[in-house]
Amino acid sequence: MDPSEQHLQQYPPLYPPVPPVPPLPPSSQQQKFIYRRPSRQCPICGKIVTRSSSLQTHMLVHTGDRPFKCKWLNCGKTFNVKSNMNRHYKLHLKQQQQQSKP
Predict the structure, then answer these.
(1) Could you tell me the CATH number of the domain that includes residue 60?
(2) What is the mean pLDDT of residues 18-29?
(3) Could you tell me the end-to-end alpha-carbon distance of the chain, in angstroms, rounded to an integer?
(4) Where is this region: Disordered (predicted)?
(5) Is 71's pLDDT higher than 90?
(6) What CA–CA distance (Å, rounded) separates 78 from 89?
(7) Cβ-based neighbours of 102, under 8 Å, separated by 6 or more
(8) Mean pLDDT of the chain
């Protein structure tokens, strides 16, 4: 009797054995079970995005529309994406903090 068998006799397992995992279906059948998020495609450049809101934001690149304006006094810089405007605005705040330090 080898040492592992002796060990199992002295110390039986605390839990029942785990059942084997069933085999995966053939790859052709696996394709049926994969969820694919619907995609949207830009009619101008063909870029593919997964959300309609992302397509709307992307379309601003083509229209040239810049609906987000920096609210900092005398800045007036405009952006086509709100997050870019927010990042820009934070630069103003950082500069102001640095100028106010002694």
Answers:
(1) 3.30.160
(2) 69
(3) 81
(4) 1-31
(5) yes
(6) 11
(7) none
(8) 84
Both 61 and 71 in a single domain? no
Report yes or no on whether pTM surpasses 0.70.
no
Average pLDDT of 28-50?
76
Question: What gap in Å lies between CA 17 and CA 10, rounded to an integer?
Answer: 17
Helical H segments across the chain, by residue range: 3-10, 27-33, 52-63, 82-100
In terms of residue numbers, what domain contains 77? 66-102
Beta-carbon-side half-sphere exposure of residue 95 (alpha carbons within 13 Å): 7
DSSP 69: E
pLDDT of 81 > 80? The answer is: yes
Answer yes or no: is 97 within a domain.
Answer: yes
**One domain for residues 72 and 61:** no
Q: What are the tokens at 24?
A: 């995966």
A 10 A CB-CB count for 85 gives 19
Q: Is residue 19 part of a domain?
A: no
